[in-house]
Amino acid sequence: MEGAAGSVNVAEIPPDPPFSKGGAGTLAPITSEESSRVVLPGSFVTTYGIGEGRPLRVDMNETRFTDNGMTISDTKTGLMWEKKTRGDDWRRALHAVNASLTWEEAKEEWIGALNAQKFSGFSDWRLPQIEELLSIVDYRHPKPPAINPVFGLVATAFYWTATPLSFHPGAAWRVFFLDGAVFVDEVNNSNRVRAVRDLA
C-alpha cells in the first residue's frame, strides 16, 4: 500500500502489534487473581502511538452490562453502546451490522445521522476512542466474536475507533472483534462501526 507523497506509508507501520506474553507492546498474561480482568499495559499505548500511556483494567463481570433494547449500558465504564441490526447499508438501516464506512464517513455522516435522529433519545453519539472500544472486548470468549453476547449481532470484523495514529493523521486505530487484536488502517479504507456515548 503506497502512501501519498510526503506521508507515512502505512504498510511500514507494524499492522499487528506483538501480543506474545511479556515485554513492551504486549498484552499482559491474565493471572488467576485477575481472571476476570483484561490488562492493557501503558507501554502498548505509547509504543504504538495511541496517546498517553495508561493501563486499561476493566472488570469483565457480566453484570456490568444492561440491555436497554437498542442500546447497552456499561455501569463499569459509564458508557452507553449502540446495538446493531441486520443489514449492510447504513443509509437504509442506520444500525446495520455489516455496514462498512471510511473513517470520515463514520465520524461525520453516520454519527451525524444518529444524532439528527436522536437515537434512543440522545444526540451526543460519537465513535469510541480506542480505550473505550477495547473495554468491551472480552478475551475470555473461546469462540469469536470476542465480546459479551449481550451485544447481540456483531460482525467478526474490524471496527473503527476515533483515535488517529499520532504520527500519521492519514491512519487510525481499529479493533478486530475476531480476537480483540489492535491494528491501524488508512482512513480512506472501510471498516465496521459502533457508536458510543457517555451515560453521565
Structure description:
By secondary structure, this protein is of the alpha+beta class. The chain has a domain at 65-198: Mannose-Binding Protein A, Chain A. It has helices spanning 42-47, 103-117, 130-134, and strands at residues 37-40, 56-59, 65-67, 71-74, 79-82, 158-165, 168-176, 181-186, 196-198. Mean pLDDT is 74; it is low at 1-57.
- Low-confidence regions: 1-57
Report strand order across the widest sheet: 3-4-5-9
The helix fraction, in percent, is 10-25%
Order of helices and strands: EHEEEEHHEEEE
- What characteristic shape results from the CA principal axes? globular
Highest-level CATH class of the domain at 65-198: Alpha Beta
> What is the gyration radius calculated from CA atoms?
17 Å
Mean pLDDT: 74
Per the CATH scheme, the topology name of the domain at 65-198 is Mannose-Binding Protein A, Chain A
CATH architecture of the domain at 65-198: Roll
Q: Count up the helices.
A: 3
Distance between the termini: 42 Å
How much strand content do the residues show?
15-25%
Largest β sheet strand count, sense and barrel closure: 4 strands, antiparallel
Number of strands: 9
Structural class by SSE content: alpha+beta
